[in-house]
């Protein structure tokens, strides 16, 4: 009797979607790294964000190379995200409210789906693969268009029903109006968008982002220096608040603003010290995954949903 031919084996992959206000970063991620990556506009003249998510998922599925099979999908999205129920409770910039995203994607694709907040997903990736790798309790603070945090406690990212980490909003009742409906929120003056907006409001000179404000400050622009310092001081107050509440010894700083390097981290360290008295000053560490943190985080969510555990050998380009 002849021996049956060996069945061809394939390697497992997950589909990873990082939903942003402008683009959806999408990737096929295997056990050892990204296999395929692409982007899809989040919104077009004839396509709403949810349609774009489905389009990106199908494009990824169709792009999976021979020799691989899909075991799950992970998606990271802004808004108030209930990880356990798989529901986006609200995402203003996407026009979403009570969207059962996990069940929609599972019905569409027929594979398990892991869902999470974009910053919590980025924090998960930094913890497992990036600057927080091997750390115990710590926080990841993302400072970009907005401000949010991801907190790792007792070996897990704490979600708080979707509300944990929304540190960019609330806490004050006076000041510049915020998109959340409040006033004087830290996002209004310490986010990258807030820094640029405040400089323009004070000078009448439009700047595209916080980097240009920093450059003007370094060139001797007094208003730019004041706007930058005020923003960094607010971030210091925020980080110190996390330390006072949770006793954290490490805070990973990410988002677009961290590209300023020491021009951000040095005065931020000084600001944190000003707001702390009895608590130990935490180490401030720049994030390591850059703009790919959300995509890697989505991959980790998808890998976990598939029941395959953690991507321990994932290769991350440096």
From TrEMBL:
A GO molecular-function annotation: kinase activity
Lineage, highest ranks first: Bacteria, Bacillati, Actinomycetota, Actinomycetes, Micrococcales
Record protein name field: Glucokinase
Organism whose genome encodes this protein: Luteimicrobium subarcticum
KW Transferase (keyword) present: yes
Residue stretches spanning the membrane: none
UniProt family annotation: Belongs to the ROK (NagC/XylR) family.
Database matches in PANTHER family: BIFUNCTIONAL UDP-N-ACETYLGLUCOSAMINE 2-EPIMERASE_N-ACETYLMANNOSAMINE KINASE (PTHR18964:SF149), ROK (REPRESSOR, ORF, KINASE) FAMILY (PTHR18964)
Entry-linked InterPro entries: ATPase_NBD, ROK
